[in-house]
From TrEMBL:
Gene3D superfamilies: NAD(P)-binding Rossmann-like Domain (3.40.50.720), UDP-galactose 4-epimerase, domain 1 (3.90.25.10). It comes from the Bacteria. InterPro entries: Ergot_Alk_Oxidoreductase, NAD(P)-bd_dom, NAD(P)-bd_dom_sf. It comes from Natronosporangium hydrolyticum. SUPFAM superfamilies: NAD(P)-binding Rossmann-fold domains (SSF51735). This is NAD(P)H-binding protein. The lineage of its organism: Bacteria, Bacillati, Actinomycetota, Actinomycetes, Micromonosporales. Pfam families: NAD_binding_10 (PF13460). Residues 15-177 form the NAD(P)-binding domain.
Amino acid sequence: MTKSADPASPLLVLGGTGKTGRRVVAELTAAGWPVRTASRSATTRFDWHDQRTWEPAVTGASGVYLVLDDADDGSALRSFVALATARGVRRLVLLSSREGRDLAFEGSLAAERTVQESGVEWTILRPVWFAQNFSEEPFLSSGVAGGDVAYSSGDGAHPFIDATDIAQVAAAALTRPGHAGQTYELSGPRALTIPEAVAEIAAATGRELRTRPLTPEEHVEHLVAQGYYPRATAETVGGLFAFIRAGHDAYLSDGVRRALGREPRDFTEYVKATAANGGWRHAAN
């Protein structure tokens, strides 16, 4: 049986200023755990492309929340995990993705194997798309801000997960017993189409929001033209929209319930909270 984390040793959160990382930091801090927030812009600087930043970040830490660099071919993660375990890290929690498994992305699967073969306690998180993509990720949030959301997922639905749920599962995996060796697939409690999601945001904000269906090819060109992604990444994102369009991504996962003993937050809760906190306050009318 696994033990709780050592409350005297800091927990290292990579990507600690990002969408999930900053929420993991908030959860751990609120619970009284010592946290070391690491990113290229944090006080503890961490850069996957600069190995000189790794040892100061990881030394003394008992657990690590791993957010990967999309450009890594796997070698950086392998080197970092070897260093971390050599420096005494005893628990690793990896942010992966459900689509990475479903579409057999070798990079995602290889990263999971690296963590599983690390020789220390590990937990894999496989979330679907974040609800926060509508407020924090330009490929959708810019459309909401401008009143015109382009998409190519057709009538396909997706069970968007609230990033706070991801953070709470990660915090539990880092600090509590019973999560070692677990893979948690994380989704919201219901699947929505992009127009349905945007309609909820419109109702909560009192704004008129348009959704604009595109063909897959048009959508890739849109993502590139708007500067959201380089072409190779845009094509990958387009492939994810196509996966949703085909109806393959609408199924629900039980990871939040398994890890936390409760149901995941509904998309409506995210929309109401974001609107109440001014998340779309500066959006164009």
